[in-house]
Structures are given as structure tokens and as C-alpha cells.
């Protein structure tokens, strides 16, 4: 799917595209004609393409049982863990997943990925946006600067308002 999207976007034969991976596994094109990133969780896949800057995305729709407060304390710091502790359990999990995908999208933008989880606040993005993937999940997009335009598509297209 990624190869097909990039080929369509760049108007080239998808089979002609060559990829490489960075030190922490972030894929890129050879030569770097466009920046892209991808994430998937359950039946949801998220792709981001931009011609201008590094990009990172993350999506979570089915998070396995997790010690939310323990992970939050380690990854986000004591104050965020305490804020989450004050929320009721369902809301706590939603807020944790929202914060997680935003953090991971930013780490993927920088090319560090999960290897940078313990580096709180290092290299923060200028712009991070939450994306709607439904009530049971969370997704985020990270860029170096606010984009001039942001276009989102669902595939396959969903017929709205039909029974």
C-alpha cells in the first residue's frame, strides 16, 4: 500500500521506488523525494506524506492491558502520571493513549522512534495534531511546523448516513 501511494503521489512506477532505513528503523526513499511515515494498529493503517519536512504518525486502536500510571510516570514524568491518576479509569486510559500517540508520532518524526521514549521533551515538534480514529482509539501527526494544508482520506470510502 505504501509503495502504491508513494508511486501515485510522485507519479512514478511504484516498483521503481527504492527504500532505506535510518539508524532506528525509520524508512525513507532513495533519493529522498518526499518524507513519509506510517503506523498501523488493528484494522487501521495511517500514512502521512509531505514534500517539505520530516513527518511522524502513530495510531493505537486496541491497546493491550498496560500499567498506564507506571508507563506514564516513566515516559511522561511524575506530574503527568499524577494528573492521570486523578481521572476515572476509562478517561485515564483515553488520555494516556492520546498522550502516547502524540509522543510516539514526534519520536518517529525525528527518526528516533521508541528508542527515545526516556528522553522527555527532547526535540519537541513545533506542531502535533490529534487525528480522529473513533472512540476506541487515538492517532497523531507530528511535523516540524504547522502545514499549509492538511488533507485526510478514509479508505475504503465510508458511506455516511446510509443504513
Could you explain how this protein is built, in words?
It is built from four helices and seven strands. It is of the alpha+beta class and 163 residues long. It has a domain of 107 residues: Ribosomal Protein L22, Chain A (Alpha-Beta Complex), CATH 3.90.470.20. A three-stranded antiparallel sheet has the order 5-7-6. A two-stranded antiparallel ribbon has the order 1-2. A two-stranded antiparallel sheet has the order 3-4. A hairpin with a 2-residue loop joins strand 3 and strand 4. Helix 2 packs antiparallel against helix 3. The longest helix is centred in the middle third of the chain and has 22 residues. The mean pLDDT is 86.
Task: Quickly describe the structure.
The protein is α+β, with helices and mostly antiparallel strands and 163 residues long. The chain has four helices and seven strands, in the order H-E-E-E-E-E-H-H-H-E-E.
Top keywords for this entry?
29% helix; elongated; alpha+beta
Helical content, roughly?
25-40%
Structural class computed from helices and strand pairing: alpha+beta
Rg on CA atoms, Å: 17 Å
Major sheet description: 3 strands, antiparallel
Large-scale geometry: elongated
Distance between the termini: 29 Å
Mean pLDDT score, rounded? Answer: 86
Quote the CATH topology of one domain. Answer: Ribosomal Protein L22, Chain A
CATH superfamily of one domain: 4'-phosphopantetheinyl transferase domain
How many helices? The count is 4
Task: Return the string of H and E elements.
Answer: HEEEEEHHHEE
Second CATH tier, the architecture of one domain: Alpha-Beta Complex
Strand order of the largest sheet: 5-7-6
Tell how many strands the DSSP assignment holds. Answer: 7
Query: Uncertain runs with pLDDT below 50, 5 residues or more?
Result: none
Amino acid at each position: 500500500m505504501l509503495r502504491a501511494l508513494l508511486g501515485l503521489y510522485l507519479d512514478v512506477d511504484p516498483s521503481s521506488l527504492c527504500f532505506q532505513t535510518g539508524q532506528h528503523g525509520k524508512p525513507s526513499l532513495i533519493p529522498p523525494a518526499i518524507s513519509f511515515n506510517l503506523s498501523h494498529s488493528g484494522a487501521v493503517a495511517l500514512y502521512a506524506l509531505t514534500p517539505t519536512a520530516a513527518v511522524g504518525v502513530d495510531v493505537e486502536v486496541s491497546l493491550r492491558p498496560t500499567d498506564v500510571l507506571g508507563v506514564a510516570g516513566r515516559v511522561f514524568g511524575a506530574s503527568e502520571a499524577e494528573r492521570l491518576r486523578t481521572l476515572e479509569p476509562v478517561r485515564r486510559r483515553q488520555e494516556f493513549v492520546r498522550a502516547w500517540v502524540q509522543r510516539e508520532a514526534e519520536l518517529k518524526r525525528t527518526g528516533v522512534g521508541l528508542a527515545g521514549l526516556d528522553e522527555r521533551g527532547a526535540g519537541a515538534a513545533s506542531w502535533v495534531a490529534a487525528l480522529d480514529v473513533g472512540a476506541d482509539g487515538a492517532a497523531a501527526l507530528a511535523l516540524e511546523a504547522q502545514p499549509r494544508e492538511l488533507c485526510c482520506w478514509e479508505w475504503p470510502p465510508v458511506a455516511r448516513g446510509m443504513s
